[in-house]
Fold this sequence. Notes:
This protein has about 210 residues and is mostly helical. Helices cover about 75% and strands about 0% of the residues. Helix 1 packs antiparallel against helix 2 (about 15-35), helix 4 packs antiparallel against helix 10 (about 165-180) and helix 4 (about 75-100) packs parallel to helix 11 (about 190-205).
Amino acid sequence: MQSFQMALEERNFRILDILIDLTQKMVEGELIQLAKIGRIDVDEEDALKLATYKTACLFSGCARLGAVLGGLSGDEEESLADYGRYSGLAFQMVDDLLDFTASAEQLGKPVLSDLKEGKVTMPLIYAMENGHRDARALVACVLEEKDFISVKPETIVSLVRESGALDRARKLAHDFAERAKQCIQGGEDSEYARALLTLPDFILDREN
């Protein structure tokens, strides 16, 4: 709301258009997530759509705002918007991974809190797709109980690691980060371009 107020004060309706668009998409993402809470039939396409609306749209919109305020051309604006989208997707993939690889102290919340809240994220989707014999039944049990009662968090973490799902999700995050870098064409000698090229690596390396 503060961003909207600032745009109104500047009478910059292009900025308002961008803010409205990204806000609508983020709200739609929240509604999509609510519809998927507690459901086990979430697939890769669902997860990517949710990541796009909830996270990548914000990154993309912010990058687009920078292009508009910097007076860049239409093509440069689109490239920066794409850069933001791919960076946001990489960020969300890493976020999903950290739920399985980081400690509670690093996360600032209990591990597997997403699953406890009824959210089936990409590592779990991949684990179930990879045919781990117990994955689907164990995930379904946690979703039904809405807690780790019959199934322990360590059991879920172990089966996800054994299935190869973490490596697959990590590769996806790396792919998105690389696609983000490819959007920064020309101007590599600029300190701003160098900063933008560094950010995807920072996203991949973060621990919380």
